[in-house]
What we know:
The chain has 278 residues and is an alpha/beta fold. The protein has helices at residues 3-22, 45-60, 79-82, 99-110, 162-175, 191-198, 229-239; strands at residues 67-71, 91-96, 116-120, 148-153, 176-186, 188-189, 208-209, 213-215, 225-228, 241-243, 263-269. It has one domain: Vaccinia Virus protein VP39 (Rossmann fold), CATH 3.40.50.150.
Amino acid sequence: MTAIVLHGFRAARRAAERLRDALGWQGSSPLLPPLALRDVGPSDFQETGREFLGHMVSLGSLQPSEAVLEIGCGPGRMALPLTSYLRTEGRYVGVDVVAKAVAWCRRNISRRHPNFTFHHGDVFNQRYNPSGRIQAHDYTFPFKDHSFDFVFLTSVFTHMYPKGIKRYLYEIARMLRPTGRVFCTFFMLNPEQRALAEMGRNDIDFRFDRGIYRIRNHETPESAVALEEKALGAMFVEAGLRIQGPIKFGSWSGRGDGLSYQDIVLLVPTASLPEERR
């Protein structure tokens, strides 16, 4: 599919979604948020939620009774399918920097599902929260140590700089239970990706070099951030986390066997992590 055809297809789908919103139609889910809150790129809101729930179950062994933390919950793209998967003894906490998205989730999801709660983290992000009071590298999540069995972030680290990512990884390791798992996505830079880039097959042109990371756009640098795979591996180790199983590289780089669009990593606590950090 050429880029022009793909662009036209995406534009037509967005136009159809706007029409459905204008007519008050919410599809198969009564909890589908308004289009104005669904700034999640060209992918289908509900389809993507279902896709990632499947990945979290198959790759991360997510169980219906577990305590789950989503960092970057937005208007509930992942929370919505989880309302049908998590049992009442399980619980979900969503955190996001967009206050309006959190408010919508509280009004529409928490009211129907009391074991689903949402928290606004006022973290600065040039694209999503330009008035945020706290820098990502200074942020402390308001949750106790060892609070969660499963932590996941989809398309969050792809909008952050290394210093903030490192802080989040430390916080995740702190909040994770000893048997917990972390499911997260990235744009990873590595030799195979670079070879595909030279062939013009990368879907995103990370043309601006910043050392261990690259960006797509100077004006809005956080719109897309890619990091060196080796540098990320060192961050995981430093935070007390290790990669579980093979990395599931995505199709964004031009690979023909991408499981999803972005690169998926599953992390678990390092076995030798000191007791005070467990």
